[in-house]
Each structure stands twice: as C-alpha cells, then as structure tokens.
Amino acid sequence: MAHTIPLAHALDDSHLSPAVVLPGAPASVGAAALLAAGTARYHHPHYLRVEQNGPDQVRFVFREFTGRESEPSSPLEMYRDLALTSEERTMIGRQYMAARVLWSKRRMRVQAAPLLETAALRWAAWTIAHDTMMSRFVEFATLPDDRWRSQVLRLLEAHRVARQMAGDWDDIAERLAVVVDDQHSAVDDWSDEVDLAVVAAELGVDVRGWLVDHISAYRATPYYRQGTPLVARLVKTIDEQRARLADVAHLTADHDTGRQLAPNRF
C-alpha cells in the first residue's frame, strides 16, 4: 500500500529542494536518508519505506491498514527533539499525512459497508412507497365519483407510509454522510477524498438515484429546523397533490373535503 505526496518545490536527485543541504551530509542524501535510523523512532508503525516518484514527488509505502487503528498523527515528541532538523520533521510530517490518507480510505470502507447494506433495503422500501403514492394519485383521473372519498383515504395512507420510509431513508443517509465527511475531513487535498459511489461499486451496491446529501443538510441550524432532504422533497410532492385535490373538491362544491385536503396539514 502506497501513497504519493506532491512537494511544494521541485526536487533534484537528492529528493530535497536544491537550496537545502543537510548539515554534515552530502547534497546527494535523499528522502530516504531523512527517514533513516535517526528518525526511526518517530515512524508510523505501518511505515515501510519512501521512494522518489518523479522530480517533485515522494511515494510513501506502508503495510496494509485495517481502518480500525487510531488516526495517524505526527508524534508531538518530534517537535521537542532538538536533534532533528526541520527537513527531517517535514518529511516525518509528510509520512503521517500519507498514512492518514490511506487509513481514512480504509476506515471509510469499513464503516460504509454495513450502512450500504441497510441503505439498499431502505431505498427499495422507499421506492415502493413512493411509487404506490404516485399511483394512488393518478388513479383519481379514472375513478367514478362514488369512489372518490375512499380513494382519498387510500392516498392519505400512502402519504403516511411514504413519509415514514423517507424518514427512515434520511436516517441512514445521514449516517452515510457522516462517514463521507469524516474521510474528507481527514485528508488535506480534494484528490484524496473518496466518493461514496466508488466504495459502493467495490461492494457491488448500486447507488444510482440515491439521495445522500452533504452532512450539513441533515443538521438543524441555530436559527431554524430544516426538513431532511428526502422528507423535504416528499412533503413538497404531497402538498402539490393535496392542493390539486382540494381545488377539485372546491370546484365540485365539496368544500369540507377541500378544507381537509388543504396543503400543510400532513
């Protein structure tokens, strides 16, 4: 397992900025030398070696992460170690940065796997509930007048079930959003962020059509409580359906039913 770290400046064959020469060492000393015996006590336990990967990059190689380890973080002791040069501290820091990227990707896969399995079941349940609700509404166009009120009851029940399924979905979607946000927060570069769809595809889960928003969409603000994404979308559809039926009820002089079907009563 390896991770490539781009450097701020192009490097010469020494793996260091051309302006940097280590005290007491020839200019040909490279990145590996900066992570040699003198710094070994600060290496991450999974660290194996560092390699040059082009003129301005180094490649850190680690043994496999499980994702259950503690988050890799540069040891504080190295900042108090006067025997270390600033270049050695920088290289150790890059080592831990690379370790954190690999660890975060593995952790995301470990955490997402059981959630994706549950999410697949909930999305299927939501899809059935949503399709049933839409079918109930469409059926009004062909119903005889004497069955109109019974169909209203069927539609309201479909609304209730769909609302429950949407809430269940948003619950698992929020947990997936947390996993994604945790991984993205652990890395310093957008190119190291992992997309949920990529992880799902690796596990054979089809997430096409799923609504998993940014974590902020599931959290209340200090000023107002917003509806969670799928529930908010569903309520808009329900309000539109109820408003349409209320209009029909009023036009047919069924004002009591029209008032009962007015939007925002769900």
How would the blueprint of this fold be written?
Blueprint: E1 2-6, H1 31-34, E2 47-52, E3 57-62, H2 77-80, H3 86-138, H4 148-186, H5 196-202, H6 229-251, H7 255-260
Antiparallel strand pairs: 1-3, 2-3
Helix pairs in contact: 3-4, 4-6
Number of helices: 7
Largest sheet: 3 strands, antiparallel
What is the 3D form?
A: elongated
Radius of gyration (CA) equals 29 Å
Tell me the total number of β-strands. 3
Order of secondary-structure elements? EHEEHHHHHH
How does the helix and strand content classify structurally? mainly alpha
Query: Helix proportion of residues, in percent?
Result: 40-55%
Strand order of the largest sheet: 1-3-2
Arithmetic mean of pLDDT: 82
List unreliable stretches of 5+ residues.
5-29
Assembly type of the chains comes to: single chain
- The N- to C-terminal Cα distance equals 53 Å
Give the amount of beta strand, in percent: 5-15%
Core attributes:
51% helix, 266 residues, elongated, mainly alpha
Describe the fold and architecture.
This protein is mostly helical and 266 residues long. 51% of the residues lie in helices and 6% in strands. Strands 1-3-2 form a three-stranded antiparallel β-sheet, with helices on one face. About 9% of the residues have low confidence.
